[in-house]
């Protein structure tokens, strides 16, 4: 019985490591895809992973938020119909609210970004900053929880808030002192009171907040 228990524990540990590896691989792929859209390398070409078509202009492409694969407009429609990425071997699910369109990002090659887009790193971060700075929608004394799915994007969000001079706290997955940071955030014990608490959506720390 002890051997069976040990084997079950090892199996669960390996399964958890596999899930974590897949999640980090997808997050890194998403990050690179977004950065490539924002700052395309010289003579870069963009590929639809679903149909393997190659194109120089990315304006018809989108990025699947869960797996990070880029797809063309026609393949996006097929992905949405099947509710999954159509690349062989990829099990990433596809939902409309998790599709990142080219137009959602800051693209210096095909149009001139506004100062705010360039400063904060894209339209989504700019929208968050605009919302936080609008005291009619978010009163000055209110605090905000910002949940981000991928750990790699938490740092980008932190840099955007820092550029806007908005005090904030970041709790990365695996942080050794999450409880004390949450307590300081809630009770205003920090030297500079944080307006925003950035949490990873899949981390246990975010549960119940």
Describe the secondary structure blueprint for this structure.
Elements: H1 2-38, E1 46-47, E2 54-55, E3 61-64, E4 70-72, H2 73-82, E5 99-101, H3 115-120, H4 123-133, E6 144-148, H5 151-163, E7 168-171, H6 178-187, E8 196-200
Parallel strand pairs: 6-8, 7-8
Antiparallel strand pairs: 1-2, 3-4, 3-5
How would you explain this protein's 3D organization?
The protein is of the alpha/beta class. Helices cover 42% and strands 13% of the residues. It contains six helices and eight strands. The chain has helices at 2-38, 73-82, 115-120, 123-133, 151-163, 178-187; strands at residues 46-47, 54-55, 61-64, 70-72, 99-101, 144-148, 168-171, 196-200. Strands 4-3-5 form a three-stranded antiparallel β-sheet. The radius of gyration is 20 Å and the shape is flat. The two termini are 39 Å apart.
Give a short synopsis of this structure.
By secondary structure, the protein is of the alpha/beta class. It has helices spanning 2-38, 73-82, 115-120, 123-133, 151-163, 178-187; strands at residues 46-47, 54-55, 61-64, 70-72, 99-101, 144-148, 168-171, 196-200.
């Amino acid at each position: 019985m002890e051997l069976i228990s040990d084997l079950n524990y090892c199996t669960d540990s390996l399964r958890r490591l596999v899930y974590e590896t897949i999640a980090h691989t997808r997050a890194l792929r998403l990050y690179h895809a977004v950065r490539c859209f924002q700052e395309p390398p010289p003579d870069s070409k963009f590929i639809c992973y679903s149909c393997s078509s190659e194109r120089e202009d990315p304006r018809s492409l989108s990025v699947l938020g869960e797996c990070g694969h880029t797809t063309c407009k026609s393949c996006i429609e097929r992905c949405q119909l099947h509710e999954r990425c159509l690349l062989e071997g990829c099990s990433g699910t596809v939902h409309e609210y998790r599709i990142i369109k080219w137009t959602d990002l800051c693209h210096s090659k095909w149009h001139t970004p506004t100062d705010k887009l360039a400063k904060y790193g894209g339209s989504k971060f700019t929208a968050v900053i605009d919302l936080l700075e609008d005291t009619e929608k978010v009163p000055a004394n209110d605090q905000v929880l910002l949940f981000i799915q991928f750990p790699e994007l938490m740092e980008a969000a932190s840099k955007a808030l820092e550029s806007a001079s908005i005090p904030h706290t970041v709790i990365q997955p695996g942080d050794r002192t999450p409880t004390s940071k949450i307590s300081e955030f809630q009770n205003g014990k920090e030297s500079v009171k944080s307006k925003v608490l950035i949490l990873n959506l899949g981390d246990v720390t975010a549960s119940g907040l």
